[in-house]
Amino acid sequence: MIPSGAPIVTAAEMRAAEQAVFASGVSQDSLMERAGAAVARETARFATGRPILILAGPGNNGGDSYVAARLLQNAGHDVSLVATGAPAPGAAERMHALWHGPTSSLYAARPRPVLVDGLFGTGMTRPLERGLAAVFADLCKQAEFTLAIDLPSGIHADTGADLGAPRGIDVTLALGALKPGHLLDIGLERCGRVLLADIDIPVHTRWRTVTRPRIDTPGAHSHKYSRGLVAVIEGAMPGAARLAARAAMAGGAGYVVLAGDRPWGEGPDALVRREVRTAEDLSEFLGWDRIDAIVLGPGLGRDRRAEAYLRAAFAAPKPLILDGDALTLLGTDAARWLETRAAPTWITPHSGEFDRMFAGVGSKIDRTLAAAAEARATIVHKGADTVIAAPKGEVRLLAHGSRWLSTAGTGDVLAGLLAAQVVQSGKGVAPAEAAVWLHARAAQLAGPALIADELIGHIPGAISECL
Ligand SMILES: NC(=O)C1=CN([C@@H]2O[C@H](COP(=O)(O)OP(=O)(O)OC[C@H]3O[C@@H](n4cnc5c(N)ncnc54)[C@H](O)[C@@H]3O)[C@@H](O)[C@H]2O)[C@@H](O)CC1
Ligand SMILES: [K+]
């Protein structure tokens, strides 16, 4: 569980935001008191009277531990504290001085039912030393409840990479804002439930977690064309395009046309079919001014005709959603091709497709942002941690989507759903955020062992939660 619509900042941005708070006259000690008070509050809520063991590292994460230990002890809790070494000079050292209980060595620590991890937070820069990681993992294993302060020690704040974090953290209390490490890579698995503590540090960022969209009920004067016409192009595997077309219909598009050389197969009667056999046919069809968005790629194939279809779709001055085989065809030339389009483009790669199209370094957010800027397209980089990035720097992140979505066809459904949102809600991240939320919610409603066809049936239920 991750708070929705929450700001996400890097460790450096968080430090800068803290410096701005200090510059406004708030002392480092009082900020640490706020952080420690939030930790004490949440720990008390979950501890329900059980004995508490608090781990304190050398830096400010440890400083928060000393504050929490003092406040919990003052409130009558049974608290033991262990430290990895002397606290760093400054606020952490001053908070240590205010802690009047004993401080013992981590290596002598006895497990207790409640564990609070204040070893390292955003200052985590290198892997945990092996012996320390083993002791820490063992204490987590033997605890009944574990809360990590800001981040689990052993998770890289900016990338979510594993620097030796234990399994079994139940709650991570993010201080001030979420960090990418709560949402990406191994961090996503190891944080448990993420709670956000507002410690009154203003942050300014264009990165947020995905929120539930607001969807308008069609107005009295709405008609099929005003609600948007989506054209889905069929290729070698017609089932994939049909899934996308049906998802566009369920997603609220007013009119959906499936265009291909075998469009007459199964599917709803409300789906309009159009026979298209060559790239010339396709160009002519895409010239129809009623078309508001095009979906190309699901089941397209990778032959010469598929390439010609891709060129025809690129040339059409319409919003374009590219998925699957279209992305494979773009390959390493993706950015060069995509940036030539005048009309808006969305691409929906999974990590394998993304890595074939774009180089890049850094976290999944950094790489997706860089690719979006280079390609001048909005990118929905799918996965357990789905990152949406737009060329001008906007980021939305959906973590904890249903793991049952990892089956064939669910990506085709997302592409169609995205097209339906594009024709209804316009540009950039907004339609992508709506589509990703609806897709994840439909998956939750479909439950375990879902198949892509069933997912479509739950889209209206997801939409009804957004009205
Ligand atoms: N800056 C502030 O005033 C505030 C910071 N806060 C807390 O401070 C944390 C950040 O504090 P720090 O910047 O001091 O950093 P940490 O407390 O996360 O880490 C302390 C130091 O440990 C060292 N270190 C990193 N990886 C290590 C490893 N594998 N083994 C051994 N040592 C390692 C680093 O040199 C780092 O400076 C936040 O996560 C948050 O918990 C909060 O108290 C709010 C206020
Ligand atoms: K921690």
TrEMBL record:
<keyword id="KW-0413">Isomerase</keyword>
<keyword id="KW-0521">NADP</keyword>
<comment type="subunit">
    <text>Homotetramer.</text>
</comment>
<dbReference type="Pfam" id="PF01256">
    <property type="entry name" value="Carb_kinase"/>
</dbReference>
<feature type="domain" description="YjeF C-terminal">
    <location>
        <begin position="207"/>
        <end position="466"/>
    </location>
</feature>
<keyword id="KW-0547">Nucleotide-binding</keyword>
<dbReference type="InterPro" id="IPR030677">
    <property type="entry name" value="Nnr"/>
</dbReference>
<keyword id="KW-0511">Multifunctional enzyme</keyword>
<keyword id="KW-0630">Potassium</keyword>
<dbReference type="GO" id="GO:0110051">
    <property type="term" value="P:metabolite repair"/>
</dbReference>
<dbReference type="InterPro" id="IPR036652">
    <property type="entry name" value="YjeF_N_dom_sf"/>
</dbReference>
<feature type="domain" description="YjeF N-terminal">
    <location>
        <begin position="14"/>
        <end position="207"/>
    </location>
</feature>
<feature type="binding site">
    <location>
        <begin position="60"/>
        <end position="64"/>
    </location>
    <ligand>
        <name>(6S)-NADPHX</name>
    </ligand>
</feature>
<feature type="binding site">
    <location>
        <position position="153"/>
    </location>
    <ligand>
        <name>K(+)</name>
    </ligand>
</feature>
<keyword id="KW-0479">Metal-binding</keyword>
<keyword id="KW-0067">ATP-binding</keyword>
<comment type="function">
    <text>Catalyzes the dehydration of the S-form of NAD(P)HX at the expense of ADP, which is converted to AMP. Together with NAD(P)HX epimerase, which catalyzes the epimerization of the S- and R-forms, the enzyme allows the repair of both epimers of NAD(P)HX, a damaged form of NAD(P)H that is a result of enzymatic or heat-dependent hydration.</text>
</comment>
<dbReference type="GO" id="GO:0046496">
    <property type="term" value="P:nicotinamide nucleotide metabolic process"/>
</dbReference>
<feature type="binding site">
    <location>
        <position position="117"/>
    </location>
    <ligand>
        <name>K(+)</name>
    </ligand>
</feature>
<keyword id="KW-0520">NAD</keyword>
<feature type="binding site">
    <location>
        <position position="411"/>
    </location>
    <ligand>
        <name>AMP</name>
    </ligand>
</feature>
<feature type="binding site">
    <location>
        <begin position="382"/>
        <end position="386"/>
    </location>
    <ligand>
        <name>AMP</name>
    </ligand>
</feature>
<dbReference type="InterPro" id="IPR000631">
    <property type="entry name" value="CARKD"/>
</dbReference>
<dbReference type="GO" id="GO:0052855">
    <property type="term" value="F:ADP-dependent NAD(P)H-hydrate dehydratase activity"/>
</dbReference>
<dbReference type="Pfam" id="PF03853">
    <property type="entry name" value="YjeF_N"/>
</dbReference>
<feature type="binding site">
    <location>
        <position position="350"/>
    </location>
    <ligand>
        <name>(6S)-NADPHX</name>
    </ligand>
</feature>
<dbReference type="InterPro" id="IPR017953">
    <property type="entry name" value="Carbohydrate_kinase_pred_CS"/>
</dbReference>
<keyword id="KW-0456">Lyase</keyword>
<comment type="similarity">
    <text>Belongs to the NnrE/AIBP family.</text>
</comment>
<feature type="binding site">
    <location>
        <position position="240"/>
    </location>
    <ligand>
        <name>(6S)-NADPHX</name>
    </ligand>
</feature>
<dbReference type="InterPro" id="IPR029056">
    <property type="entry name" value="Ribokinase-like"/>
</dbReference>
<feature type="binding site">
    <location>
        <position position="299"/>
    </location>
    <ligand>
        <name>(6S)-NADPHX</name>
    </ligand>
</feature>
<comment type="similarity">
    <text>Belongs to the NnrD/CARKD family.</text>
</comment>
<dbReference type="InterPro" id="IPR004443">
    <property type="entry name" value="YjeF_N_dom"/>
</dbReference>
<dbReference type="GO" id="GO:0052856">
    <property type="term" value="F:NAD(P)HX epimerase activity"/>
</dbReference>
<protein>
    <recommendedName>
        <fullName>Bifunctional NAD(P)H-hydrate repair enzyme</fullName>
        <ecNumber>4.2.1.136</ecNumber>
        <ecNumber>5.1.99.6</ecNumber>
    </recommendedName>
</protein>
<feature type="binding site">
    <location>
        <position position="150"/>
    </location>
    <ligand>
        <name>(6S)-NADPHX</name>
    </ligand>
</feature>
<feature type="binding site">
    <location>
        <begin position="121"/>
        <end position="127"/>
    </location>
    <ligand>
        <name>(6S)-NADPHX</name>
    </ligand>
</feature>
<dbReference type="GO" id="GO:0005524">
    <property type="term" value="F:ATP binding"/>
</dbReference>
<comment type="function">
    <text>Catalyzes the epimerization of the S- and R-forms of NAD(P)HX, a damaged form of NAD(P)H that is a result of enzymatic or heat-dependent hydration. This is a prerequisite for the S-specific NAD(P)H-hydrate dehydratase to allow the repair of both epimers of NAD(P)HX.</text>
</comment>
<feature type="binding site">
    <location>
        <position position="61"/>
    </location>
    <ligand>
        <name>K(+)</name>
    </ligand>
</feature>
<feature type="binding site">
    <location>
        <position position="412"/>
    </location>
    <ligand>
        <name>(6S)-NADPHX</name>
    </ligand>
</feature>
